[in-house]
Design goal:
With about 375 residues, the chain is of the alpha/beta class. Helices cover about 40% and strands about 20% of the residues.
Length: about 375
């Protein structure tokens, strides 16, 4: 397999081009419960300032972040929107890579506390702008609603865990049918082509870990198209268990050994499974294509791991595969419906806070923060 890539090593590759907007999820509703990559929203060593927003639901954290991001984008800043997996229309953070600045929602379930207070991190408490008496009056309702929300999410995670056990059984069947030796040859040839002429570095490359997609009240939501913007794109096709993640992991390992910065994006169901990899300094992305995430791109290279399957084994287990797939889809749908119920309860919870907020004061405070960022 002879592969020639258009792009090669570029200096200063971890910064994106001016005015670029990207979307991603820093956390997800997964088979392992709520899974957080919030430490990678903006790593401390790259940060000039990280503002951590505190306050209850409905106090305006998402609006606060969005308005600042829109203003800075109009001034030519790159923006990374960090979406909430429990409400993708809401923001859990915004990052301004040009400035090394992030604003992050630091409330539950993704509690973020300062790591280097004052030096890097700064807490913004929007709770100072609410009417205590109005909120205390609804104390019992707030406690009850929070308990109901927690119970719904725990039920959703049990559905996802049960669904993943069926999904995992299909992974094992496809893995048993896979000719892994042939896949290893394809992986080695790809690595040789990507890193031709790039020596191993004495300094390991930095890594960033996030989600490109998430299981949300709206179903499976993906922002992958905003992330696959490189000149070269390698598309890997393969059923669960064919080992597509091994290719990604080996490419990432080779990149890190050569001192290259990498962005890893993980499976919404299994947060330990690597699905997409971006190496900005090589202007290269590698993405796995499946029924769950199939982006419309013009690939530089396409590798089909399904071609390494022994289909006689697949036919032998077709009944189990169909049963597992149907059961998985049923449980996934049930989990999504349960997360949707939790979202409705969360909207009710916001209703206890919104009438008791002084949004004019918040807006003035937001303008002060914006002046600092400008």
């Amino acid at each position: 397999m002879e592969i020639i890539f258009r792009a090669k090593l570029k200096p200063g590759g971890i910064m994106m081009s001016k005015g670029r907007v990207r979307h991603m999820f820093p956390g997800g509703n997964t088979s392992k419960g709520f899974f957080s990559f919030y430490d990678y929203v903006l790593p401390q060593e790259r940060a000039e300032r990280i503002f951590i927003l505190k306050g209850g639901p409905g106090v305006g954290k998402s609006t606060f972040m969005r308005k600042i991001a829109e203003t800075l984008y109009s001034e030519g800043c790159d923006i990374e929107y960090m979406h909430c997996s429990s409400d993708p229309s809401s923001l859990d953070g915004v990052v301004f890579p040009n400035k090394g600045i992030a604003i992050i929602d630091g409330t539950a379930p993704h509690i973020v506390d300062p790591k280097n207070p004052g030096a890097v991190d700064e807490i913004i408490n929007l709770g100072r702008f609410w009417n205590d008496e109005g909120i205390i009056k609804n104390r019992d309702k707030i406690l009850k609603t929070n308990m109901e929300i927690s119970a719904l999410f725990q039920r959703a995670y049990r559905y996802l865990q049960a669904g993943y056990s069926l999904y995992r059984d299909n992974e094992i069947i496809y893995s048993q049918a896979m000719e892994h030796g042939k896949a290893n040859v394809a992986i080695s040839e790809l690595i040789d082509s990507i890193f031709a002429g790039i020596d191993v570095s004495e300094v390991e490359g930095k890594q960033r870990h996030l989600f490109a997609s998430a299981i949300t009240p709206e179903g499976l939501v993906s922002y992958l198209s905003s992330l696959l913007t490189t000149d070269d794109i390698v598309v890997i096709e393969g059923k669960p268990g064919t080992g597509t993640e091994r290719l990604l992991e080996r490419v990432r390992s080779a990149a890190v050994e050569r001192g290259l910065y990498t962005e890893s994006y993980y499976c919404a169901l299994n947060p330990q499974k690597l699905e997409h990899l971006v190496i900005p300094e090589l202007d290269l992305s590698i993405t796995t294509s499946s029924e769950a995430h199939n982006v419309d791109v013009d690939p530089t290279v396409k590798i089909d791991f399904n071609s390494f399957l022994d289909h006689s084994i697949i036919r032998k287990h077709s009944e189990e595969i169909n049963f597992n797939q149907n059961g998985f889809e049923m449980l996934l749908d049930r989990a999504i419906e349960t997360i949707k119920k939790a979202k409705k309860k969360h909207d009710e919870l916001e209703g206890f806070y919104v009438p008791n907020m002084n949004f004019e004061e918040i807006q003035r405070f937001q303008e002060d923060i914006l002046k600092r960022l400008m």
